[in-house]
Amino acid sequence: MTTATPAGHPPADLRNPAQLLAALPYVIGFRPARSVVLIGHQGPAGQEPGLILRGDLPRREHRAYQAQALAARFATGLHTGVTLAIVGGRRRPGSAPPHAGFVDVLTKELAVLGVPVRHALWAAKIQEGARWRCYARTDCGGELPDPRTTVAAAAATERGTVAFDSRDELEALLSPRSPEALARRSAVLSRLPCPPCPDLNEAASAIRAEFERHRRGEGPPTDEEAVTAAGALTLPEIRDVCLAMAVPPETSAAREAERVWLTLVRELPAPERAEPAVLLGFTAYMRGDGAFAGMALENALAANPDHVLARLLKTVLDRGTPPQVIRGLAAAADPVATLGLEPADFDTGQAL
After folding, report:
1. Please, how many CA atoms are within 13 Å of residue 281, restricted to the half-sphere of its CB?
2. Same domain, yes or no, for 125 and 260?
């Protein structure tokens, strides 16, 4: 299983191995365990983080396949080097860090693409006081600082985001609140036109109602509200306006929209769940949270494998495309013409 994080994520110091390792939970969104993390180097001096990939540590017989799959993501020529970080395993006193064989295979695969490995690091776990070592030098190592003291942690705190203790914990946010409710709504939706398409004014009112319900703290939607919202999100005009709410990122408007989409992901069955999952993935992508964006987009594709926008976003995310490159997907929307309201109005508490 692989997680990609595009450029635009929390800052990480590529020149300080201990700080870089400690920052990983804030860079990828969760605390990695039994993982390989590849941090791309960009910029004239090679000190700017580029694409960041996290993969599971492979079994010995799967090393070559995993190395080829990970290295191929750096074949675009945008990176001047890569730092490898291995998390997990026990190091015997006086011996090399564990998984050295996999590091060698991965280094060779990257070299074929003309991407040198700048540093190869190992840490037993990502927590204060954990031991870390370099693979190439015996005099390089020590103990990790508190991850909460890193620059990446400070940047995440300023944005109001947190690092989860595991990938599973982050992914659990997308789990259905009530399988029974999903079954009821699926039965209703299956009896309606596919999909139930209201007119534009009705659709706008349905989405506006979802935001108002969240602001009042009324809890999950009723079956009728969920079905109505599902129909509203099928209209391209509504989807485009919803995409526009993701920019500029890190605003209260974008955060509020992300909460609404997350709720609908948990409250709608497949295939209708794909629509809010795509909006959730795009919003997370715009704020640089590649891990959560990828999970949301995978959720969308699981609900509807043929969803064109979900597949497009997943492809550009996997390539490490910076958020600003695809920001035009949101900028192309015209909220004034569609709803008569500017996206900025959401910051002032006005209705959608």
Report:
1. 30
2. no
Nearest to 296 by CA among 314, 315, 271: 314
120/27 same-domain check: yes
* Tally: H helices and E strands in the chain: 15, 7
- Render pLDDT for 186-240 as a digit per residue (tens, 0 to 9): 999 998 876 566 788 888 889 999 999 999 998 899 999 999 999 999 998 899 8
281 in the same domain as 140: no
Cβ–Cβ under 8 Å, residues 47 and 101: no
Q: Which of 280, 338, 343 lies closest to 309, judged by CA?
A: 280
Question: Is position 165 within any domain?
Answer: no
Which one-letter amino acid corresponds to residue 197? C
Contacts of 317 (CB under 8 A, 6+ apart): 4, 6, 285, 290, 293, 294, 297
From CA 53, how far away is CA 41, in angstroms rounded?
12
Instruction: Please report how many Cα atoms fall inside a 13 Å half-sphere around the Cα of residue 119, on the Cβ side.
Output: 24
Domain limit, last residue, from 135, 159, 183 = 159
- Where among 127, 159, 191 does a domain terminate? 159
| Type and span of the H or E element at 291 | helix 290-303
Residue 46 lies in a domain: yes
Residue pair 163/153 in contact by the 8 Å Cβ criterion:
yes
Domain hosting 328: range is: 171-348
Same domain for 180 and 118: no
Between CA 282 and CA 138 the distance in angstroms is 43
pLDDT, tens digit (0-9, with 9 covering 90-100), for 161-195: 778 888 899 899 999 999 999 999 999 999 887 65
State phi, psi for 120 to the nearest 5 degrees.
Answer: -130, 115
**Angstrom distance (rounded) from CA 175 to CA 150:** 31
Name the domain count of the chain. Answer: 2
Q: Is the pTM of this model over 0.85?
A: no
Considering the domain boundaries, does residue 166 fall inside one?
Answer: no
The C-alpha atoms of residue 205 and residue 185 are separated, in whole angstroms, by: 20
Q: What is the dihedral of CA 66, 69, 70, 74, to 10 degrees?
A: 160
